[in-house]
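The data layer described in this paper is built around a simple, fixed record for each protein. We quote a single record here, exactly as it is kept in our systems:
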Amino acid sequence: MQLLVALTGASCAGNRHPGGYSGAWIARALPAAGRLISLEMNPRHAAFAQGQWNRLGLGATATVISGPALATLPTLTPAAPFDMIFIDADKETYPDYLEWAIRLARPGTAIVLDNVELRPAGGSGSPGFTARTGHAAYDDHAGLRSTPRQHGCALRGWAGSDGCEEGRQEC
């Protein structure tokens, strides 16, 4: 995540599902005046992530908003556009999160979706995911490939990642 932030030159990043870990790497890579806004549904997890970031000296850069993402995403409009958006959340709602990511993006924004190597039929993929979550992730990848505003690709890792660059047509 730190490398991706550095490569994209991001100064404003969004993170759906902070957990403390990925957000810390994103926040560390941001410039001094950069900011990370992260969304977390569970207030306990949000407090944990913010506490971790504060202990790491990232509290001035990284902020967690607690509440359901689809309810809190509209509140991010004044902070937009984001230079990088990382989505690692409930897979059934990925298509909705992707729609919001596109709304909050600018040309050149890197949008990264985690765990997209899931199979729509529930075949081999990340353990613990159902056919329903596999369909959502598959739909997201198909959506990235068919949307003319994005350039997308699948990046294979442990569980798979997918990314796109807003407004770019070629590699």
